[in-house]
Amino acid sequence: MYTAAVLTVSDRSFRGQRPDEAGPLVCSLLEEAGYSILETGVVPDEQPDIEAALVRLADQTGAALVVTTGGTGFSPRDVTPEATLAVCERLIPGIPEAMRAASLAITPRAMLSRAAAGIRGGTLIINLPGSPKAARENLEAVLPALEHGLKMLLGGPADCTSAFS
Question: b vs e for 82-95, b when ≥16 Cβ sit within 10 Å of the residue's Cβ?
């Protein structure tokens, strides 16, 4: 199917003070959906570090999909959306909208998510929350549509008339 990379954004996980639980969970969910994981990584909540990692993953690994986990909340150090927006050429607002809508059915706190999604070259970048539970719920909300989006992004035949069947 498609290739993916998973990037965890967490000061504590980067420093080895807390195990990364969301990143491995996201990898597992993507592998179950048929994705091949090319690379995983952990970076601190520093916008230049996040941007550099996203650019490298999108431009050098050949990943069709880059998924981040963490850094999408209200904390002053939560800058993953800003880093994502800085490196993307085109935004995909429907993905975070769908994730928030699905999460709102579970908790009103979902409206506090600042997740972003966009395209850099031939790579779709999606931000997920850092909580393993929330990362699972958000990824599961959009996973069924990703194959169609990636097929269009990568220039394959994608019949838009059958997209909603």
Answer: ebbeebbeeebeeb
Q: Render pLDDT for 75-105 as a digit per residue (tens, 0 to 9).
A: 999 999 999 999 999 999 999 999 999 999 9
Query: Which residue type, as a one-letter code, is found at position 64?
Result: A
pTM strictly above 0.90 = yes
C-alpha span between 105 and 54 (Å, rounded) = 30
Instruction: Give me the numbers of helices (H) and strands (E) for the chain, helices first please.
Output: 6, 6
List, for residues 9-29, the tens digit of each pLDDT value. Answer: 999 999 999 999 999 999 999
Calpha distance 145→152 (Å, rounded): 11
Spatial CB neighbours of 110, under 8 Å, sequence gap ≥ 6: 100, 102, 103, 104
